[in-house]
Every structure is written in structure tokens, then in C-alpha cells.
User: Which sequence fits this backbone?
């Protein structure tokens, strides 16, 4: 009797999910919603000397070290096509989450126009940097809440997020984050 073991890829809906899987040694084989087979995955760059042993290792800590150093591990040859170091500049706000809790919807909208995604927990929505309203799309098991407004993002000339799905994501304890046209990195659990 033969036994067949398989692993089904599930839940890789955004580049952050793909990055987490790659760092763990999982190659996600998922066709994107737009039909493409390509995904841009970002890692925080950490300058490091990568040894041949690390590069040929399949251990998650070595895979992560390689990916963060911009080195494609041997395990991902032919899967990952290139690595590029880019500088991401983020404009930070002096507005704290506690300040957001005290704001009226109009004040939140004004803050969003300064280049931020602002989450209104009372109404369960997010104001984008164009002051459009994004509504809750889903909540992941780890508490990550996704908000979107596909019609508004489709018309938008600013392109506040490069996410294919044009959405903003927040953990339940985050109320404001910058939007500068590049992917917003979320803290990992």
C-alpha cells in the first residue's frame, strides 16, 4: 500500500503571507486572483555576511537571514528570480493612537489627508489619504483586519498602496499608519 502525502497552499492572500511562508521554508504555489504567477515580496534589509552553509541550508533561521540580506538561498533557486535592495522612506506622524480615539470623524478624515490611513474603531472603517472610506473586508486569525474600497482605489490617482488588492491592513491595536505609495509593513506576531 502506498501513501501519498500532500500539502495544500491556503491563505497566501497578500505578499506579507508569502514572505512569512518563504522565511519558514514554505514555497507557496498559489495562482494570484489576477491570474498571475508572480508576486513581489519584501523583507526588511539587514546587512549580513551569508556563508555558503547558510545559503545551502533549509533551516528557517538561515532562509530568513539570507532573504533579509538580499541573498537568494539555494532552496529557492528557480523560484525567486531576483533580489533588490531599495530604500523605503516613511513619513512618521506625531499623532498617537490615543489622539485618534479622541478625534471626530471629520478630524480623522483631515488627518488622513496628511498622508495616513486612519482607523475609526467606533464605526469600523478606515479613512485613506484621499479621505475615501475603506470598509472591513476580513479579519485573519492573528487579528489582522483588512479594509478596502475597490472602486475608490481604482479611480485614485495617488495609489496610496501598491497592494494588488488595494487594501489597508491593521492589527486591532493600531489606529494610524503612514501611506506613501509603498507597501506598509505590519508587525509580525
Assistant:
Amino acid at each position: 500500500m502506498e501513501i501519498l502525502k500532500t500539502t495544500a497552499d491556503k491563505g497566501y492572500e497578500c505578499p506579507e503571507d508569502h514572505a512569512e511562508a518563504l522565511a519558514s521554508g514554505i514555497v507557496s504555489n498559489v495562482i494570484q486572483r489576477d491570474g498571475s504567477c508572480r508576486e513581489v515580496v519584501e523583507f526588511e534589509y539587514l546587512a549580513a555576511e551569508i556563508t555558503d552553509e547558510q545559503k545551502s541550508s533549509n533551516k528557517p533561521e538561515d532562509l530568513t537571514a539570507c532573504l533579509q540580506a538580499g541573498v537568494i538561498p539555494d532552496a529557492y533557486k528557480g523560484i525567486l528570480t531576483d533580489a533588490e535592495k531599495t530604500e523605503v522612506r516613511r513619513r512618521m506622524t506625531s499623532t498617537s493612537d490615543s489622539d485618534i480615539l479622541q478625534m471626530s470623524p471629520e478630524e480623522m478624515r483631515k488627518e488622513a489627508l496628511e498622508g495616513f490611513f486612519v482607523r475609526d474603531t467606533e464605526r469600523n472603517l478606515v479613512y485613506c489619504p484621499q479621505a475615501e472610506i475603506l470598509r472591513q473586508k476580513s479579519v485573519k486569525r492573528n487579528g489582522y483586519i483588512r479594509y478596502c474600497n475597490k472602486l475608490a482605489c481604482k479611480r485614485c490617482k495617488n495609489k496610496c498602496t501598491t497592494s494588488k488588492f488595494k487594501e489597508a491592513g491593521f492589527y486591532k491595536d493600531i489606529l494610524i499608519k503612514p501611506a506613501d505609495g509603498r507597501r506598509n509593513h505590519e508587525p509580525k506576531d
The chain has six helices and six strands. The mean pLDDT is 77. Residues 97-178 form one domain. Residues 18 and 87 are 21 Å apart (CA to CA).
